[in-house]
Amino acid sequence: MTRIVAGRFGGRSLQVPPKGTRPTSDRVREAIFSRLEHLDALDGARVLDLYAGSGALGLEAASRGAREVVLVDANRRAADVARRNVSTLGAQGEVRVVADSAERFAAGAAPADGASGRGFDVVFLDPPYDLAEDALAAVLGHLAAPGVLADRAVLVVERSTRSPEPAWPAGLVAFARKDYGETAVHYAEPGSGA
């Protein structure tokens, strides 16, 4: 069973898609959110949850103070489950579900020419462990485009410990990695890396 760990929805159960997703364990989610809270990244944040599945990461962010959350999953069943979870929690005003591929959504996330807006403060990427490294690199490349991320954004990428370090594009710099059994959590932020 997947549940919200803490915050205003703490303890509430979430539905999960019957197949095709790998929910992040409570232990790993708690560790991720402890780090994000230490970084003061959640209060009032705009959050993007790519490969969202049930929406557990994005909904946990909403529970802990995020102002706006976008859940994105290409699997229509997963998107439907995420919508039900949003509705059950009563979070429709702050959490939006998009049935689209992570790459297509990320490619369109940059503001239109001349438009100014606040980029995402936190981005979760929890793709299937068998997602090809070049496919993940393409999504990260889109996220590094000007205007997609806020200046002090935090990216959280969950992969298998057997996977290589993500190929961080110019504009994103890794600053931490933590392993939890089979799960490796990578953290990155905007920067030049110089």
Automatic annotation (TrEMBL):
Enzyme class per UniProt: transferase
EC number(s) on file: 2.1.1.171
Transmembrane regions listed in the UniProt entry: none
Highest taxon in the source lineage: Bacteria
Keywords: Methyltransferase, Transferase
Recorded GO MF terms: 16S rRNA (guanine(966)-N(2))-methyltransferase activity
Pfam family, one: Cons_hypoth95
PANTHER family registered for this protein in UniProt: METHYLTRANSFERASE
Name the UniProt record assigns to this protein: 16S rRNA (Guanine(966)-N(2))-methyltransferase RsmD
Organism of provenance: Isoptericola peretonis
Organism placement in taxonomy: Bacteria, Bacillati, Actinomycetota, Actinomycetes, Micrococcales
